[in-house]
Records
---
Amino acid sequence: MAERIEFFFDPVCPWAWITSRFAVEVSDQTGLPIDWRFICLRMVNDVKDYSTFPPGYANVHGAGRSFLRVAAATRAEAGNDAVGRLYTALGTALHNDGRGAEVRETGDVSAVLADALVTAGLPPTLAQAADDESFDAVLHEETDLALSRTGKDVGTPIITYDPGTDHEQSFFGPVISRIPRGDEAIEVWAAVERLARTPGLAEVKRSLRSRPQFD
């Protein structure tokens, strides 16, 4: 098993949220360190016409960028663990508690963000970063880094195993509809990591999937 991973996320993606809880489950059992990194879906889709997307996508992806600006400010002020707490609070609100619907409808992140900062035990003033474009340089840098490791025809999450070592490998996914727990989590994690480390393997995919289960 990897000694460390980097997990690139956008908090508005439900599939990344499920995979992140899978990673946290494994970390809780094994002590695997997770470095929380950013991949901004709004930036990934910069060249696309949002009028071709389903309704609300522009609001959702714009909200993701705002949340990630705050995550970048959080990391600068309080470090990696604080980013993890913020992601947990945002993901729980958006996905488990269903508040992503209000963001999709209005594009307004203020209420969700204010509550998440309180839940994560972080200063409310960090919410000011949501509109601070100076953090976009960090988001671009990490988005570009993630895509340089996997190729551009992917989304979030991206996981890098053993970053900065001779054994570094990166993979998009896994995209799963439920969170493995207990012994199953360790078994599935080991299988996915083994695939990610297989030389020449680019893709294992099927289009059929269940609706996301966040419990």
Note: Helices lie at 14-30, 41-44, 57-78, 80-96, 100-106, 110-119, 136-150, 182-196.
---
Amino acid sequence: MVLRALSDAEIESGLQKPGAGLPWYAHLYLRYYIGPHVAGKSDWEVETKRFYDTSAALLALAEKLDNGALQRRVLVPRLAGIEDSSRFWSAAMVLEHVMIVGMGMRDIILRLSQEKQPPGHVDTARVKPQGLLPVQTVLDNYKDFPDVVMGQIEKSVPSEKRDPQVRMVHPWFGPFTLRQWHWLLAEHNAIHLRQMQAIIAGL
């Protein structure tokens, strides 16, 4: 008996829909422990450095891959902080997603620093990568990403503007302050760095 490899469409059909979120116990852990006790007490300079470090690590891994490997999708095991629908991505899709989310978080942080409520709401289903851009375009865009995002935050958000009272709701964490969103910017990178490592291991 010859076993047939599943197609990409068949693998995707076995995953939850985008935006399904995390298991209920993960939501509780994020909202009632990580949000207030980790993100809420984060050190600004430490998280800025962590953002740059994880951005550089993601780029270093991606640059070791040829175009074929960059665009090859790999089903990775369940990872903390990643929806089921996000487990079947390529390395290029990870970079695309990190840029989409990073730009969005930058805009939220800048609005909160002005004590303004960001428009709309956060929807994890709307920030999934499409995987349609040429992989070298994604890679080139990503090289500018850290300075485009964190560079603007550092320029526009001085220390006296880092703790306004206005908040923006995250669907997993609940109402988040500017400082918590800044922590999440670095943490999001770290989560997808682990995903990138798992993708490369599975190539």
Note: The chain has a mean pLDDT of 95.
---
Amino acid sequence: GSDGDVLLDNQCSVTQVYSADLDQYRPDTALIVTQTGDPTPTVSTEAAVNYGLIVGLGVAVIGIGVAAFAIRNRREKLGGPDRVQPSNP
């Protein structure tokens, strides 16, 4: 957008790579900065996946399941959680 001779910009403005077509809009006081390489941004269509995290979470879930199963089986062998074990002093 613009306000008289002043061009306005904000985070909703369309961003594009500078080209000679934009020279007519460049103010006389603008600094020209040279850049090496292609300034065109690249966009990856593949999501970054952290397979290590996924495997780690899977191993943790399986470990918790195995531990819960073992604890339950141990309690059943001892007669359940409500059974009082007699002691010999």
Note: The mean pLDDT is 75.
---
Amino acid sequence: MSKLIVAAFVSLDGVMQAPGGPQEDTSGGFPFGGWLVPHADEAMGETVGELFDGSADLLLGRRTYDIFAAHWPRIENDPFADGLNAMRKYVATRSPGPLEWRNSAAIGPDAAKAVAELKATNERDLFTQGSADLIRTLLAAGLVDTFRLMTFPVLLGQGKRLFEPGSPGLGLTLERHRVSDKGVVMATYRAAGPVETGSFAIDD
């Protein structure tokens, strides 16, 4: 069975909206598009490169897919763009509109069911980028195996968040981490079952 990896760029207060540019996603009047760019460095680039090395397939919601598809196919002579364009892409969508980006396939409106089937039959792992609504659906269905989060030293105060109120509780185990010179915390967490609790109270 393959694994489902939630990969996300997040601010310190958990916002994941429009990290790469001012016009990436302005929904809700979001004014901070491109907030990760000032923190980019070699260490961050290496970590992103590992994620997009072609060993896993990309899973996207339709909004994120449309944003990516409008940009990356136009980029030439760039190894990252070449790899992303060649990568297999699965899209959770209710829209009948065509998916014109190379190597794209729709998985239908019932994302949880479709992703569960992919995990059971796909030889390669799946990972998400962006796609906040899709991630919430997959979390609620208990389908997420791993989180690969890059947390940036900035507070945004508004925007779409990776974890919204009502997200299910989940215990996590840290598998590895790295901190860039610009303060970006790059960490991989494995889902570890229910949240464990305890107490520091002293019994009488």
Note: The CA atoms of residues 75 and 156 lie 29 Å apart.
